[in-house]
Hints:
Number of domains: 4
CATH superfamily of the largest domain: PAS domain
CATH class of the largest domain: Alpha Beta
Structural class: alpha+beta
Domain PAS: 121-184, 212-278, 342-409
Pfam families: PAS_7, PAS_8
Number of strands: 20
Protein name: PAS domain-containing protein
Largest sheet: 5 strands, antiparallel
Mean pLDDT: 83
Low-confidence stretches: 1-17, 466-471
Strand order of the largest sheet: 2-1-5-4-3
Amino acid sequence: MTSLVGLLWRRARPRDGAACVLTFRGETLRGVRGRPPEGIELSVGCHWTALATLFGPEVKPLLGALMERGEGFHAHVRMAAGDLLALEGQVSGLCALLSLRHATPGEGVLHARLEELASFATVRLRAERCPVAMIELDAGGNVRWSNAAAAPLLGAAFPGSDGQLLLRNPDGAALGWHAITSVPLPGGARLLYLENIQARVASEQALQGLLATLADTFAHLGEGLAIFDRERRLSLFNPALAEIFGLDAAGLAARPSLREFLAALRDRRMIPEPASFTEWRDKLIAATSSVTGTPHTEDWSLPSGHTLRLTVRPHPDGAAAFVFEDISRDVALERRYRREMEQGQTTLDRLSEAVAIFGPSGRLVLANPAFCDLTGHGGLADLAGSPIGAVLERAEAHLGPAPAWEECRSFALDPGRPDRWDSVLPTRTGGYLMRASALPDGSTLLCLSSVSAAESAASPVTARATLSRAS
């Protein structure tokens, strides 16, 4: 190609002497004969590499070979302004000569053609080495060109439209899944791009299998489950979700966004009634993007009277799981328990007899005002949760020492105790009959009843008899 260019250049070069000749001795410019082309500024004494900077990287090795080894050359270079220059390098004695001139129209046509051929060769090389399979088909569907990556696919039947297809060879053996893109060419020909997506399809199939397994697993859960992907679209749900909220399973299968899902719940009055729905919704959506991954929990008291507990669990990959649990029964039981506790406390408060209940661990659960006053405690708030030892120790300091205090403590903490225990606690003004009973759950009921001084000095049997007659 170089010899051809040189021959054509010599035949086409002008003979009017319009060239500018640069004379180099060693590696330094020593003389300039003629007028340099426009845009090229030279000064005697400059190094030859200054020209290489002007002409670009393609000319630099040619100039280097001329200066260092005396190798002549012919070349054309396109300047930044668009002008095409013809360059000829040769050796004359101890000097290197570089001729510069504007190319003739014929040289311009020849250079453009050579550039086109070089560009075509570059494009063809890129296509050959492209890792994506490329196949050109004629109007009859016959292969007339293919690159190296398409070699394993030759012989397969190719579709007439774009899409994903499992290709097979004539023997029926699978060649893998490919994403096919068809580009029409003149004359009815087509250029096919075939991207191997076997790994992607296998991953999608594995994911679908996993989702099916998860769906089967979660189908038996009583809690409603909704998993939103990183785009906040519903990607998985179980039947309980549709049952709890009365939603259409087909609508859920359409993968609504989280905003659309919450709006549907609002329309069905299946969410709380906040002062600002927008602020509440945005706060809930923000909980799905928690950086710490801490679950967000809130209870929904619905207008229907039901209570749902929502737990939002953000995941590191950007997804978020919503778990809806119907806790209406638990809330009702808790309310009933509180009501019964309040009724029990009210009943105890109205008794004149001092009464206290200690739990299985020996800590105070309930006490009435009479017990607090008798034992020298300020009120139930000071006693709540106190161990029986501390409660009886303060009572002993207030009423006076007696063996009955230690006996009562031992009874309450003894796992093998009898059902009942009683004793008389004498005082200066009379005394008190202490009675303790073991409750079914392991708790202890303690009662203190007042007796006279004469009765407390007698035996406990007499005191008990007196109390029995009084009752």
